[in-house]
TrEMBL record:
It comes from Paenibacillus alba. It comes from the Bacteria. InterPro entries: ABC3_permease_C, MacB_PCD, Macrolide_Exporter_MacB. Residues 271-385 form the ABC3 transporter permease C-terminal domain. Belongs to the ABC-4 integral membrane protein family. Residues 21-234 form the MacB-like periplasmic core domain. The chain crosses the membrane at residues 21-42, 269-292, 312-345, 357-375. Keywords: Cell membrane, Membrane, Transmembrane, Transmembrane helix. This is ABC transporter permease. Its main location: membrane.
Amino acid sequence: MRIWELFQMAMATVRSNPMRTVLTMLGVIIGVSSVITLVSIGQGTSKSIEKQYEGLGTNLLTVNLLGNGRATQLKYDELMELEGTSGISAIAPTMTRGSTSIKYDRTTQTYNVIGTNDRYLDMQKGKVASGRFLAAADLDFRNHVAVIGTEVATKFFGKDDPINEEINVNGYMYTIIGVLESKGSNTSGTSLDSSVIVPLPTMSRDFKLGNIRSTYVEAASGDQVSKVQAVLERYLYSKFKSTSGYTIFNSSELITARQAASSTLTNQLVAVAAISLLVGGIGIMNIMLVTVSERTREIGIRKSIGAKRRNILLQFLVEATLISGMGGLIGLIVGVGLSLAWPYINPSQETSLSLSVGLYAFLFSALVGVIFGLYPANKASKLKPIDALRYD
């Protein structure tokens, strides 16, 4: 018997009892759609993490000094001397004061104030929307100039040009020289959109702050991050004679760690979803066993007119595979549709990812039909023509 004839017979059987067919396929539909959805969530989250840190760069290290004593503080000039070290391309020491009172005309708001140097913006992969960023001269002469984020500019000036306007920062007047493009938060969680950036020496004097506690260090390339980190560790240990007074944050390590955690969770979720497929396969096997019992007369008659064992086996095996495959196809459509229509499931919105996962899940669902349909098909093939007389 040809495969096409077997397929037609299987389709006729499926159409003869649509409600049973749908309920039988339900486990496979849920299993396949769950696999696609959960893998899309995991992979999409990993891609989203990569993109978040891609804007910052994976060759950036952040040194944070701990404690309140003099032994855990550094001076600006000391840090900038490291810029000549092999492998280090730029250093941007920073001072940050959160919830600082900022005034313009009759409007008062609280924003973050960041004191830093002219390297900071490039290291943060930020851009200036209008005006300019800090220059070396602003630091040398301790100029009272400021660069503001988009949120600050909108709050105080609306659609007006804020360049050369003066704002009151902690009781001191600063002239606005630039406005940043919207960027969002950096690795420390500080939003540049709601920040006011001023020359570090000026901030240190006006705010009466001590020495620097946080510093961004950019390696010349991603390959030299480990080398630069080792240099920083040796330098800081030589300064403090201890490893407990500071931390060095490596953004590439965080990406790897988060992706590993995301991958582990995704694998666990997929394993749970795969169980749904197996349960669906068991459901198919049970229904096929019932079908064999109901069609005992049909099988006996076919055997009596010359049908061979392999014909009966293939007939029921094709039916089981068809039901499972149809369930897998519906699950593929549901899973891919959800992953593309709902950004939370697939933040990166990669169609190829959902389709490739869906294809594998669909093929696996068909395999489930073959595996779990084999026993009922084998049982049906072993029936003898005399068994048709036992049909009630």
